[in-house]
Amino acid sequence: EAAAYALGYVTASLRLFQMDLFRRIPQGTLAELVGEAGLASDKLVRTLGIHIAVRESWRILRDSSEPELRRLAELIEYYVMGVNDYISQLTGRSLPQEYRLLGLKPEPWKPEDVVAIQKFFAMMLAWDTDDLVVAELVRRWGLEVILDLDLVNRTLTTPQASCRHAVKWGDVTGLRASMDSWAETTTTSRLDLPGAQALLKLLSEASRWIPRGTSNNWVVSPHYASNGKPIVANDPHLALTAPSLWMLVHIETPTFKVAGVTLPGSPLVVIGRNEWIAWGFTNVMGDFVDFYYYKWDGDRYLYRGSWLEASSRTEVIRVWNPLSRTYREVELRVLETVHGPVLEEGGERYAVAFTGSKPSLELVFIWEVNKARSVVEALRAQRYFTAPIQNFVVADSEGNIAYSPVGAYPIRDNLPVYEVRGVKVVNRGFLPFNGSNGEGEWRGFISYGELPILYNPPEPFIVTANSKPFDGECGLHIGWNWADRFRQDRIVELLSETLRSKGRISVEDVMRVQVDNSVDLSLKMYAGLLVSLAERAGRYGDLVGGVRNWLLEGAPASVDRWEPAVALTWAWFFHRSLWSKLYGSEENAGFFRLEHAEYLLKLYMAGDPRAYRYLEAGEAEDMAIRALEKAVKTLEAYYGTSDYKSWAYGKLHYYNPQHPVIKAYSYD
Questions:
Q1: Beta-bridge partner residues of 213
Q2: Which of 145, 326, 373, 515 is most buried, judged by most C-beta within 10 A?
Q3: DSSP category for residue 330
């Protein structure tokens, strides 16, 4: 209790405004602090009902009859007491500068605010609009685009684990979560997608306050570690913010010792170690959001042959004006269907199901992990985990290691099947569902006990970097839009090289891997394609030749080299141009994986007619030359010289955390 109080007090003294942002975003009260800039975010959160889930989650925790849950609730209350005791001591001059500029004082904290921090994680790592982006691609090009860009199968990506080494979570933990058994039903269907462009623009604006990012982690088997003990490494490089999303903490009492990082506003260590285990997380990149469209008649919608009246609720959002020092109120009417709340903009309406909108107990999971004395105990804690589902790696002092992407994966019923060039494509959630036909309805979650994990596998190490979790059907269709393979491949490459040269991996070796920036495999791949396109177009200039020679050297990304600066800028312009050709604009370009471009360009360069649905003969070559010309002009202006050999990569590609409100606090 004393440690929880102290952590609350100290965190508030260091990160009060950041904590305020983190608690407000998932409760839809951001506009009360930052004004009009937070209104779109609040509308999204209030529509999704995340604020309701926050209150219900705290109620479940507070009223639980389980002693450990009640104890956690008490610790949260002590943490909140520490935060509020610090706030009570603040005067006008000692207020953080953000509050003084906005003309506000920090409001006292409540236990619900601590629960909201976990929902903030869910919004960061589980909420997405990928389905709607794919829908726009399909509306433009037809269902063939799913195959031609390899959107779902992701044949170029590198799986993180092998099904042949997988075991069931329930077999290791001895737990059989009482979830629905999984029996997929499909039906042949006709596709008739409504538009989503206006809605996507709105959601893009609403998501600007939600940090994004990727992460890496890995665990080395004790049999391949130099000291005979397992090594856990984690690199949770989420968005570059000032201050960092993470805060280093070390908590030590006579009965509780744990160290690592926490998210400001959380009373526990999120990633770290205690006296018995070490653990880390990366995002699974699974599919935890589904969209549904209907035939509408006013506020009535057609559902399985019957017209139903959508229920509604009214949300009142307060918006602060820092100039007049006054609030105004905005009313938001939210419709609800059998599938979830309705997002609407410009006449477009989609209901949405999102695991982050459900009450959940992730804090209990973290609490149990903080106290765990073995890998098995840590894995058992996942029974409390809903979202955002993470690649969980863990090791214990007895030498056991594990990898587990366990959490709440929706069971979708009545999945539509489409015929695409003789191939049956089952929509398991990568496209919006026809809600009027009852497609893709959630009827529970895949049984935790049946989900695949690795426990003391024979491999020297387990690496995760947001790639596809497993290489086969043992993954149970738990997602589709994985990260590109390049970070995964680089870590595996470096660890494998260490084993070949030394026979064992040390902590120092792992540290070198974590800070490696000597080669960017994604840039190496893209630059290779661009050089080939430029040479096919007859451009053999010094720049292209220099990049080609750099690739032959292994593409070193040294800060003093000019070639990676050209390659990066060239790839950036080309990638956005290619996406614009496919999508019709540069909007939502963040969806477009490098592997999508790679797959299409390899078809194109092989003369495959499938690629010519999107690019005319010679068009990719022309696009590459135009992108190079734009890159040169941009770099000349940026560096202030046309001497390309002085374009040092380190001056272009650098560390630049951004403060969300005050530009002067950013690192530029």
A1: 238
A2: 145
A3: E
Residue with the bigger pLDDT between 475 and 360: it is 360
What are residue 303's DSSP bridge partners? Answer: 306
Return d(Cα 576, Cα 544) in angstroms, integer. Answer: 20
Place of tokens 């209907």: 294
Structure tokens at 623: 């696009």
Q: And the tokens for 104?
A: 């506000």
φ, ψ of residue 588 in degrees (nearest 5)? 60, 30
For the stretch 123-168, pLDDT in tens is: 999 999 999 999 999 999 999 999 999 999 999 999 999 999 999 9
What's the one-letter identity of residue 369? V
**Of all residues in the chain, what percent carry a pLDDT higher than 70?**
98
How distant is the alpha carbon of residue 495 from its chain centre?
25
Separation CA 479–CA 488 (nearest Å): 18
Give CA–CA dist 53/353, Å, rounded. 13
Nearest-CA neighbor of 578 among 137, 112, 13, 55?
A: 137
DSSP 8-state assignment for residue 479: B
Pairing of strands 423-426, 415-420: antiparallel
pTM over 0.90: yes
Torsion on CA atoms 378, 382, 385, 387, rounded to nearest 10: 90
Query: d(Cα 418, Cα 55) in Å, to the nearest integer?
Result: 41
Tell me, letter by letter, the H, E, C secondary structure of 261-291.
EECCCCCCCCEEEECCEEEEEEECCECCEEE
Separation between Cα atoms, residue 365 and residue 153, nearest integer Å: 32
d(CA 486, CA 521): 6
Contact (CB, 8 A) for 184 and 409: no
Residue with tokens 């202006």: 637
> Coil, strand, or helix at residue 456?
coil
Cα-only R_g, the chain: 25
**What is the rounded distance in angstroms from the CA atom of residue 66 to the CA atom of residue 367?**
14
Whether the CB-CB separation of 594 and 482 falls below 8 Å is answered with no
Helix or strand holding residue 83 (H, E): helix 67-88
Residue 661 has pLDDT above 90, yes or no: no
Beta strands in 123-191 (DSSP E): 167-168, 186-188
Backbone region of residue 501 per phi and psi (left: phi > 0; alpha: psi in -120 to 50; beta: other values): alpha
